[in-house]
Target: mRNA-capping enzyme subunit beta
Amino acid sequence: MNNIDSDQPSRKRPRLEGASEDDDGGRESGDKNGVANGHSREESADAVAEDEASVTASREPSVTHEEDCSSEPQSTHKSAESQQQPALTSQPTQSIANAAVSQPLAKTGVMPAPVTAAAPLSSSRPPPPPPQPQPQPQPSASAPQQQRSNHHHHQQPHSMHHLQPSIFGKRPDDDIVLQVSEFFWQNLGAVADGRQLEIEGKLGLIVDRNTGNRIRLPVRSETVLWNDGSYRFDSNMTRDQHGHFNRVLNALVQPPAPGITPLRYIHTNEVDHYHEGGGGDGGRNKIRVSMDQKTGQVREVLCKRRIADLEIHLPNSPLDFRISMSLEMPAPHPPPGSVSRSRRFKDRLSYSHQAVRVDLTQVKQVMGKSEEVTHECEVEFIRAACLLEEREKRLRNQPNLFTAYVDVFLNNLRFLSRKAPRLP
Model:
């Protein structure tokens, strides 16, 4: 045990109130009479008076300076009496220096005296022991269920690469993509020559024939409609919407981000003359003669026959869209003297990107003396025969891109529909 200030005269402090008489091996007493039990050495009256004044002064700030004592460093609370305490060699107790470090200060402001294990203070609560580290529970082979439960609640994936798409290890097909793929699959079976196939999706509104307004269905997401004749599709959009699409697409013609294929742009001006068709179709299929407006050169003569339509309603977007499949079959020139019943002057901006092309067209339709200007936006397969080829691959159980083409086609229609400005 270390001695503290061994050069000071050795004398006992008065015993504190409530202390046991067994503590004369090293603890300071608090008896107000100032007499130490069991000692033959007499002290002068002056020394006893000084000790009583010291004990009284140490008790006074116990209420008013409680917070200050708890916040000050421990090394500043050594009183004069603690410096004069004799060395403790006969009892198995801690030194005052060790007690000041291992035990918190008492609220009275007096450095706690060393206490023997056999005689604790009976009138005051002992200082709480320092917190001991709690042993960590070791995994036991008898509790595998608890380990699995903790693993389930606390283990988090380190990145998205650890997440599998489902408990089956794969992602379910998009329902809209499945419906459109089925629509294409069924109608492609009747197509013999893919070079005559046209597949396009036009933006517009699905209109209720009874009200003349856009349909309002009890759905909250895009929906493929079963059109029983109650709806019609209006491909005309406002001039502001058309101009907005023009600005959006022009921005994509600029050098894109790395890894993105840029759009190719072309501006054409054509006029379509429609003549009555021949054959056994009762005149339902018109012959279309397309000519360059500036040069008058004939670009193509064909007869367009519609195969099927599929309407998709997007209640959260400003526009719906309709997917159409048609055959554009070469036709002979109209006989001499045939007069076109209508003309369509088309000012068209075409933006091509990989497998699809987006056409923005301002149309002026002339029938006799009446004229009507409309604005249209459509997405079209540049080469629709690719779907027919991918279908054949799937029939032979070969790797194919049939669903991928459908997905890309729908993605372009969805993005354009969502980016359209809403009508007031």
Summary: The longest strand covers residues 298-313.
